Amino acid sequence: MRRALAPLLALVLLALPLAAQQPPPALPSPALPPEQIVAGLSRDDVDITTSFDGSEIIIYGAIKRESRIPQGEPLDVIVVVEGPSQALTVRHKERRLGIWINTGRVSIGSAPSFYVVASTRPLHLILTPEEDQRYRVSIPLAMRAFAGPMEVEDAVPYTEALIRLRRAADLYRQDDGAVRLAEQTLFRADVRLPANLIEGYYSTRIFLLRDGKVIDTFRAPIEVRKVGLERWLYRLALGQPFIYGIMSLAIAVAAGWGASAAFRLVKRS
User: Which of 30, 69, 130, 246 has its Cα between 20 and 30 A from that of 170?
Assistant: First the structure.
């Protein structure tokens, strides 16, 4: 019996290394969406100089398909340009006995310094609330989270006040109809950047939608940086504040002395 089993055992032992050498079966690749975004930017960097008064970026692209345009609801495109996020505190002030005092505050863990939403049609008509929650497209959902303990019962008025102030400063915008879509294939959006931008990397997100659902997305970065004298002074103020303060004081003293000397010369003449 043992002699009969010996050849079978040898065959099993020889087959084990061969089975171990075989690669595992490849996982199936995820299916590509039937409609895909192919996009580009007119520029991927913005230089802030002493004469910088704003800029404009053209975001353009096309819809790539392997078949004919699907029937049904029309295609829509949303373009979001988002600046670097910052933690900040929103305070509510009231006047009591002739003095303005803080009566409440809300700390927001992350709020974009710049946020623009451009779309082919009004946002509420082309994006479902569920998709908005998932991708955080609309301006109110751009606020990431609240930080620290809540000192007020309702934080909504504070976030609304922040949005209102930044809208007034042209830092938050919702431009319905600013994306032009031709033949459900070619699209273009002109995004205006104000003069009061901060340095950092800005994110461009493009969403392709049909029937309120996001079917494809595209991302691209934009670098905003100070150049020339502006950048040198900015780096000096952050890296060596003592030297920056001494230099500022010396310039102020020199300017005051120069103005005084010029005034004396004019008075004598």
Answer: 130
